[in-house]
Design goal:
Blueprint lengths: L10 H27 L2 H27 L14 H29 L7 H29 L2 H30 L4 H28 L6 H14 L5 E10 L2 E10 L5 H18 L3 E9 L8 E2 L3
Parallel strand pairs: 2-3
Antiparallel strand pairs: 1-2, 1-4
Helix pairs in contact: 1-2, 1-4, 2-3, 2-5, 2-6, 3-5, 3-6, 4-5, 5-6, 7-8
Length: 304
């Protein structure tokens, strides 16, 4: 058997730390916009930003915990902590949507025209630009580092951008038509959108907690690495994979001649491990060597 694991870089942690003061800045800007206008849509936008701050702290805690090396009680590492954070992010988005529904429903009964709309819109656009750029950075970096918490944080902030766009449309319609009811109506529409986004994030994160297999592309890369580096063996079967944050766990059975010396079988395992880790960075392997004649239980990877 052969095992190994490569720890992730500190990049996700640095970005998660930077997200917290940035979220606080955006929150302050949006609260200022709401204070200037009295708009329920801008209040809804600010409420989501409050949730952003809490979620960003949760993401940082999860990333720090997930980066801890394996220990006696967690012998496969702490990678799944990031999925837990991502679920929390999804729940936080849902909570933000419910808060928006509450505020908008009250305003629907007694709609009032916001004041200083132009100033409020300008302030909100600045916050949206900051969020838009940072969401792109987090999602791209999170995917590169295979950090579910960082990707979830980026998607959460991206929903905030969508919220802000909806707010701008709602205030613009209220201003253009003279009907203040467009303000809470757009707030409700935005709430529905982020509720859908929150559920999607929860569903995706739960998949990670349930040991989702590697992608089809990654599986093909593993099979190719085996075919190119398993010379001397009779083949591989019972190949299984699972993803946990930045780590990939791979195990399979290597079939060899029953009279092959242990040293030769070990050399084949080392060769396979090196090739697969090159194809799948951060992989941890378990290779079970067995003699020919044992009936395989799973799919066999043939060498020709």
């Amino acid at each position: 058997m052969s095992t190994g694991h490569a720890h992730g870089s500190s990049m996700p942690r640095k970005l998660a730390i930077a997200t917290i003061p940035l979220s606080l800045l955006v929150l302050a800007i949006k609260l200022a916009a709401w204070h200037l206008t009295g708009s329920v849509a801008l209040l809804s936008d600010a409420l989501e930003s409050i949730v952003n701050v809490v979620a960003s702290v949760a993401a940082l805690v999860a990333i720090i915990y997930a980066s801890k090396p394996a220990d006696h009680d967690h012998q496969f590492g702490h990678h799944k902590a990031e999925y837990i954070s991502a679920v929390i992010e999804g729940v936080a988005i849902v909570v933000a949507a419910l808060l928006i529904f509450k505020e908008a429903a009250g305003e629907l009964l007694h709609p009032t025209m916001p004041t200083d709309i132009y100033i409020g819109l300008g302030v909100n656009v600045v916050a949206s630009l900051i969020n838009g750029v940072w969401a792109y950075v987090l999602i791209r970096a999170g995917r590169a580092a295979r950090s579910p918490a960082l990707v979830a944080d980026g998607k959460h902030i991206r929903t905030d951008v969508v919220t802000s766009i909806g707010v701008v449309i709602g205030l613009g319609l209220a201003l253009a038509t003279g009907y203040p009811i467009f303000d809470p109506l757009l707030a409700l529409a935005v709430g529905a959108h982020i509720l859908y986004a929150g559920w999607g994030l929860i569903k995706e994160s739960l998949g990670g907690l349930m040991d989702t297999a590697l992608t089809q592309e990654e599986s093909e890369m593993i099979r190719q690495a085996i075919m190119d580096n398993a010379a001397g063996s009779s083949g591989v079967h019972d190949l299984r994979t699972r993803r946990a944050g930045s780590a990939a766990f791979i195990d399979f059975h290597l079939v060899v001649s029953e009279d092959m010396p242990v040293g030769e079988a070990h050399d084949i395992c080392d060769r396979l491990e090196a090739a697969i880790k090159k194809a799948i960075p951060g992989a941890s392997l378990a290779i079970h060597v067995e003699p020919e004649g044992v009936k395989p239980h799973g799919v066999r990877v043939r060498l020709s």
